[in-house]
Design brief:
The structure holds two protein chains of two kinds. By secondary structure, chain A is mainly alpha-helical. By secondary structure, chain B is α+β, with helices and mostly antiparallel strands. Chain B has one domain: Orthogonal Bundle (Arc Repressor Mutant, subunit A). Chain B is built from four helices and three strands, in the order αβααββα. Chain B has a three-stranded antiparallel β-sheet. The chains are: A mainly alpha, B alpha+beta. The interface between A and B is medium-sized, with 26 and 23 residues.
Chain lengths: ~130, ~110
């Protein structure tokens, strides 16, 4: 069954709904403690902004890839996500263009600071005047 | 030392992984195993995996899916020309850093 999976490419071909069902099916095959862990990551991603927007299929596909590989090797959960699971998820999600509202808000913050900073350098004479 | 090395590794892990891949192509678990052998025991598998996803997206590695006897196919990563160039840059930056830090260390004694 595994050879059906060809990476993020697959989601584009079969569409988001089927990609999601396939992800669910792969998740269901995992040993229960791995499933508990991936469920928790999935839940967090939904809230932190990884679970919506375009491209999330790849995120979850890569995520289940990781847990499948780790389960196959018998890597303990703690060694997959590390001492700080929040940090793991944050680093993981940075790789993807998906990321829903949080990414939009990051872009908004960055461009607002850019604008403020540019306005500052355009009028340097104002600084220090009474 | 635990916390400090974790912080320092954040900036260098990418270079470390590229350096490992410059020796031979490898898949995720092999890379983590090698790091553990070399004493980097606290590095999470997921951290390496996220890093591999990133270097793949940045075009530093070529990826091949190889069937595996135990479980899903493995993604085998090999360093390409772009990755080698980036690794060269990493070592130049590293040399600069170690040189400067060495100077500071000597002055501070």
């Amino acid at each position: 069954m595994y050879d059906e999976n060809k990476g993020g490419f697959l989601a584009k071909v079969i569409g988001p709904k089927r990609a999601w069902r396939r992800y669910k099916a792969r998740k269901a095959q995992l040993p229960s403690n791995y499933r508990t862990a991936i469920d928790a990551v999935e839940h967090y991603l939904m809230y932190a902004g990884g679970g919506d927007g375009a491209g999330w299929e790849t995120v979850f596909e890569d995520l289940v890839d990781l847990f499948e590989q780790s389960a196959a090797h018998g890597t303990p959960i703690r060694e997959i996500v590390g001492d700080n699971p929040v940090e793991f998820v944050e680093v993981f999600i940075q790789n993807y263009p998906a990321g829903g509202w949080i990414r939009r808000e990051r872009e908004r913050l960055t461009s607002a600071i850019d604008r403020a900073s540019n306005a500052e350098s355009a009028t340097p004479a104002d600084e220090g005047s009474p | 030392m635990g916390k400090q090395i974790t912080e320092m590794l954040k900036g260098t892990l990418e270079g470390i992984v590229l350096a490992i891949l410059s020796l031979a192509p490898a898949y995720g678990y092999e890379i983590t195993a090698r790091l553990r052998e070399q004493g980097f025991s606290d590095i999470a598998e997921g951290t390496i995996y996220a890093l591999l996803v990133r270097i793949e997206q940045r075009g530093f590695v070529d990826v091949e899916r190889v069937p595996s006897e135990q479980g899903p196919p493995r993604k085998v990563y090999s360093l390409n020309t772009q990755g080698r160039d980036y690794l060269d840059e990493f070592w130049r930056t590293w040399s600069f850093l170690t040189e400067r830090l060495g100077e500071l260390h000597r002055e501070g004694r």
